[in-house]
Amino acid sequence: MKPWKTLATDGKFTLRQREREYMVLSEGKIIMSSRQHGAEPDLARIGCARIDTSTPRLLIGGLGFGFTLRAALDIAPDLTRVTVNEPSKAVVEWNRGTLASLNGHALDDPRVTVEVGDVQRVLSKNRKHYDVILLDIDNGPFAVDIDDDMSLYSIGGLSSVRASLRTGGRLAVLSAGTHPGFNKRLAEVGFTASVQYVGDGDSLVFIGDV
């Protein structure tokens, strides 16, 4: 097997390739691998299942390798408008270049707008704006302290998410594992909460309907 080759480094992020596989590391730790992406299409499918308009507005938190974005564009109506928020400018640039073939050049789709930075900033300026919000950040609430007031998955963060959804909207959160009490937290901020296991069965999608 060929060794890994470093393609690019930007700050704490490094892009590597081995044959047809890519990975992104943050400070030496693997945070994304193109080999493991079975759950992202399920996230898009579940999130978009409640769309009842021909002109929906979607927000995707976390670009990654663009697999969720690709799936959402393929599923949603032609007049959909999709905003993708990605904290790392480098990841966006790599998706426009080296990684574009992995997702069918999804960022070139005219329906797509990219916002670089904190997703909570995007939420704060778009109240009652989105029909669907898909979150694939930090491996979901499984990997973070949801009691941290700065977390997107805290009461404050989820309240901001709910405020950005239109009536009839849906939040879908991809998680690498279960998190006791997260559905209860969704309910506390006004969502009708449920969960579906996806991908290989180890991942799940937390669902919050408005």
In short:
The protein has 210 residues and is an alpha/beta fold.
Task: Note down, in words, how this protein is organized.
The longest helix has 10 residues, at 39-48. The protein folds into two domains: 1-35, no CATH class; 36-209, Vaccinia Virus protein VP39 (Rossmann fold, 3-Layer(aba) Sandwich), CATH 3.40.50. Helix 1 (39-48) runs parallel beside helix 2. 24% of the residues lie in helices and 33% in strands. The chain has helices spanning 39-48, 67-75, 89-96, 119-124, 155-164, 182-188; strands at 5-10, 13-18, 21-26, 29-33, 57-61, 81-86, 112-116, 130-135, 165-175, 192-198, 203-209. It is of the alpha/beta class and 210 residues long.
CATH superfamily of the largest domain: Vaccinia Virus protein VP39
Main-sheet strand order equals: 7-6-5-8-9-11-10
Overall tally of domains: 2
- The strand count comes to 11
Task: Give me the number of helical elements.
Answer: 6
Query: Radius of gyration from the CA trace?
Result: 16 Å
Q: Which percent range fits the helix content?
A: 10-25%
Low-confidence stretches: none
Task: Based on the model shown, name its key terms.
single chain; 210 residues; Rossmann fold; seven-stranded mixed β-sheet; four-stranded antiparallel β-sheet
